[in-house]
Amino acid sequence: MSNDLRVWIEPKSHSIEGHTAKCSLYFNDRIIWGPRHCHNNTVRLRDALNAADPRFRLDVSPKGKTIEGHTYAISVKAGDRLYLDRLSTHGHMLELCNAIEECLAAERRKVSQNTPNPVPELPPPSQAPRPSPPRHQPGPSETPPPVSSPHHPPTPPESPNSKASTRPSSRHGFEIAIICALRVEHDAVEAFLDEEFEIDGFSYGKAPGDYNAYTTGRIGSKPVVLAYMPNMGKAAAAVVSSQLHMSFTRLKVVFLVGICGAAPMDSRDRQTFLGDIMISTAVIQFDFGRQYADGFIRKNTLEDNLGRANPEIRSFLQKLEGKSTTKRLELKTLQYVTDLWTRDDEYVYPADDGNDDNLYSAEYRHKHQDSSFCSICAKCRLPNDPVCDIAKESSCAVLGCSAEHLVKRKARKFTGPCFHFGRFASGDSVMKCGIYRDKIVAKEKVIAFEMEGAGSWDSIPTVIMKGACDYADSHKNKAWQRYAAATAAAGMKAVMEEWRSSS
Ligand SMILES: [Zn+2]
Ligand SMILES: [Zn+2]
């Protein structure tokens, strides 16, 4: 065989498919991938692979039906012949493409070792078909950035010396910090560190009275310090950021990175989707005020409000919000987050695993929808009626939340994570009510809800970057948290490349 088989996936519009099969891939009767669930159309992939290179055998067998979202198409080519052209498929088929490519690379090495005149190598990656990023179709005028796979590493987007170690000589050489509140958030940020500095016994130390824990390292060419919060919330964020400033005295910007609840529409009336990246231009403390018998009054005097960001941060945000910069950020973010998927499949797009991006109407409660099942949820009719504790911790699928109550939304043309800039609502509790959310959005023109921004905003120049993991209503689904944390961290890496050091 010529080892020139190529199998790749590329994005397509989302479709809902029933999966009734599972499949495993064999090479010369040795299993190299699977079993994974698949659509019964996978028999067409099986036949195409068998025709293109009979050493590969894809076993497809029946299993119980599940419903999945398809956002990719898979193709098979050997030599000049296309054996399969864009068959609708599932995102995890990228793993199958990689398994085939790894297997063939090993075969090519064997051939070149055993042949006095080595066979010609495959065309360079720039000419070879390769897995494309999901959910985004660049327009004709765009030049998409290189997309990585384990076999086609990404071209560094920064200057050629970006990979050189830039370890500052002391703590005072850092101007960028990152603060994360949750483990899921700092796990994602750490996944983008290109180098860690304080290993092998080296330490920058800390200022007296600083009880924070840090990781120092490099993202691209920029030295960064990552600070961990002991728990969520404004008070913890305020303590961590003030101690951070004690040890790292020349910080210019702090990225508060993680996950948040998103308003269904942003301040420019664009729809938000889960995994989109929300960036703060201002922060309001929506639950800071007085509760009166007839309603809540937010404290809104000059002294009670958080100040504006400093001029350097405001100018930086203005630049990021510009159309061409935002477009570049979105393309890079897509590249970085899909690159992360190839390294760690915990961060993959959850809709590919059957967790839909559902926005329910604001008044539709997350509760046991079958009234015969739960006496507490059965009595929940008005907005303030309680639901049972089990319902609060259960998914919409378990409770039977109905698709009839989904908000009908236009399909998005741009399919990667989008950036949304606007005001953040920072509060002392998690927003879990669609009706209250909509009231705050209408009154304060906010685009996102979170709990830490107000804590660091006042003490240190802060840019809040959070991935939307829910719609700040009662319908929580933890399945989106890792993906949203990953898009926020990938977006932060892209944004950091726009930051220019003043030194
Ligand atoms: Zn219940
Ligand atoms: Zn629900």
From TrEMBL:
Domain of life, source organism: Eukaryota
GO molecular function per UniProt: catalytic activity
Transmembrane segments: none
Alphabetical GO biological process terms: nucleoside metabolic process
Biased segments, Pro residues type: 117-159
Region annotated Disordered, chain positions: 111-169
Signal peptide positions (record): none
Domain Nucleoside phosphorylase: 176-319
InterPro entries in alphabetical order: NLR-like, Nucleoside_phosphorylase_d, Nucleoside_phosphorylase_sf
One of the Pfam families matching this protein, by short name: PNP_UDP_1
Protein name: Nucleoside phosphorylase domain-containing protein
Source organism of the structure: Orbilia blumenaviensis
Species lineage: Eukaryota, Fungi, Dikarya, Ascomycota, Pezizomycotina
